[in-house]
């Protein structure tokens, strides 16, 4: 008794450990990996780094501008006093002059231009990100094709193997019947041909599975093989109210936001600017133009600049931006219109497959009954092996049709979600 218990325990452990080796993958795993393993995904970090550096550069507009300047000159003439003042000896200025200065300029108010430029930089970053998202979104569509093709082929293989087993069992019976003289060798040959035909289809399906899995591995870098279970997703459409969440549509929204910000920049350029400045230096002459000696000097001050009139240039720039905004607006309207038409088509497509599945189930139930009757008739010599194979093929085709329509329904739902940007 103890040996039996130990043997059962060992077998259970083996079965459980074997079962754990079978990996299951789902559509979300594929989406995640195809995005993260594609080279274009790296662009997100590169755009982020560029954005951060550009923002830091713009931030320096608020910091003082420092510069060290030097110059040495020789001039053909200098300022002279044409007469002598009593009791004063004014030395003639040197024609060679030298100056070394340290200059500081501090922006006090720039009309909000720097902040607007930072906003544009941020929008450009979002636009670049969105362009990457569009490319990655297309990758998900490719994954859908491969993933569901694998499921479809695997289901086909199961159905074909069941049909093959049915014919194999009948082939054994037929061979025995030939020995006893109740069936002809031609019946055995018919069954053999039918089985070989199924083996051909199974081989074709297996090669298709291998090829599709190899492509999926290349796209996702997932560790999968022919024994991997591919989860059949249960897709819920939810509400059918119109939504447009497509990344391309979001890109158009961002472009409109950028145009609005550019209009603010145009307005900021017309505002006055205020800055403080200072200069300290050493040279000859200093600020005392009557002294011919090297001397230190400095000055500080403030300046304001304003160009309220620019020959309507700002007005025309805004008009150009308004035209660009209207162009994008028409693109969005066209996008919405085409999307609504496409969604209507996909809704009818889903409805079609739902109704086909209902009919497939009815046909399969009838085909099972017909095949059961044909099996009995064949066993009793009422019908030929050719007739039996015909019924097996018909029942197999009905099963294949059901699986095909189920997968087509899921694909139609995913295509619907893809169209509105919910994938």
What would you give as the CATH superfamily?
Outer membrane efflux proteins (OEP)
- Tally of alpha and pi helices: 8
Distance between the termini: 57 Å
What is the fold named in CATH at topology level?
Answer: Outer membrane efflux proteins (OEP)
Radius of gyration: 41 Å
Whole-number total of structural domains: 1
Percent in strands: 5-15%
What integer is the average pLDDT?
89
Q: What is the C-level CATH assignment?
A: Mainly Alpha
Any idea what the CATH architecture is?
Answer: Up-down Bundle
Kindly state the percentage of residues in helix. Answer: 55-70%
Pick out the low-confidence regions: 1-20
H and E string: HEHHEEHHEHEEHH
What does this protein look like?
- By secondary structure, the chain is α+β, with helices and mostly antiparallel strands.
- Helix content is 65%, strand content 12%.
- The chain has helices at 2-20, 27-36, 42-59, 113-179, 185-220, 247-269, 313-379, 385-420, and strands at 24-25, 65-74, 96-109, 229-230, 273-284, 295-305.
- It has a four-stranded antiparallel β-sheet, with no helix packed on it. The chain has a two-stranded parallel ribbon with strand order 1-4.
- Helix 4 (113-179) packs antiparallel against helix 5 (185-220), helix 4 runs antiparallel to helix 6 (247-269) and helix 4 (113-179) runs antiparallel to helix 8 (385-420).
- It is rod-shaped, with a radius of gyration of 41 Å.
- The relative contact order is 0.12.
- The model is unreliable at 1-20 (pLDDT under 50).
């Amino acid at each position: 008794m103890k040996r039996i218990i130990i043997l059962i325990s060992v077998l259970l452990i083996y079965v459980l450990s074997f079962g754990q080796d079978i990996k299951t993958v789902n559509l979300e795993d594929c989406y995640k990996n195809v995005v993260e393993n594609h080279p274009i995904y790296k662009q997100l970090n590169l755009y982020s780094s560029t954005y951060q550096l550009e923002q830091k550069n713009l931030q320096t507009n608020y910091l003082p501008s420092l510069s060290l300047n030097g110059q040495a000159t020789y001039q053909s003439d200098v300022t002279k006093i044409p007469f002598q003042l009593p009791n004063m000896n004014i030395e003639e200025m040197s024609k060679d002059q030298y100056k070394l200065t340290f200059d500081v300029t501090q922006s006090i108010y720039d009309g909000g231009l720097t902040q607007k430029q930072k906003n544009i930089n941020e929008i450009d970053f979002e636009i670049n990100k969105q362009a990457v998202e569009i490319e990655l979104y297309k990758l998900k569509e490719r994954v859908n094709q491969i993933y569901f093709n694998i499921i479809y082929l695997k289901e086909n293989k199961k159905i074909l193997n069941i049909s093959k087993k049915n014919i194999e069992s009948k082939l054994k019976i037929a061979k025995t019947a030939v020995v006893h003289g109740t069936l002809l060798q031609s019946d055995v040959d018919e069954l053999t041909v039918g089985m070989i035909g199924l083996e051909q289809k199974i081989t074709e399906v297996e090669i298709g599975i291998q090829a599709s899995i190899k492509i999926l591995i290349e796209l996702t870098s997932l560790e999968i093989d022919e024994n991997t279970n591919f989860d059949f997703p249960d897709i819920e459409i939810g509400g059918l109210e119109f939504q447009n969440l497509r990344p391309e549509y979001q890109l158009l929204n961002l472009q409109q936001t950028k145009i609005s910000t550019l209009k603010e920049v145009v307005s900021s350029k017309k505002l006055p600017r205020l800055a403080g400045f200072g200069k300290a230096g050493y040279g000859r002459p200093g600020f005392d133009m009557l002294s011919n000696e090297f001397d230190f000097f400095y000055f500080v001050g403030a300046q304001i600049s304003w160009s309220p009139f620019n020959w309507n240039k700002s007005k025309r720039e805004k008009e150009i931006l308004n035209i660009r905004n209207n162009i994008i607006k028409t693109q969005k309207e066209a996008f919405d219109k085409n999307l609504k038409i496409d969604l209507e088509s996909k809704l009818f497509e889903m409805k079609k497959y739902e109704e086909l599945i209902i009919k497939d189930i009815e046909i399969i139930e009838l085909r099972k009954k017909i095949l059961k009757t044909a099996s009995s008739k064949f066993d009793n010599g009422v019908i030929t092996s050719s007739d039996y194979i015909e019924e097996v093929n018909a029942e197999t085709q009905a099963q294949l049709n059901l699986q095909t329509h189920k997968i087509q329904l899921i694909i139609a739902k995913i295509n619907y979600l893809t169209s509105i940007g919910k994938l």
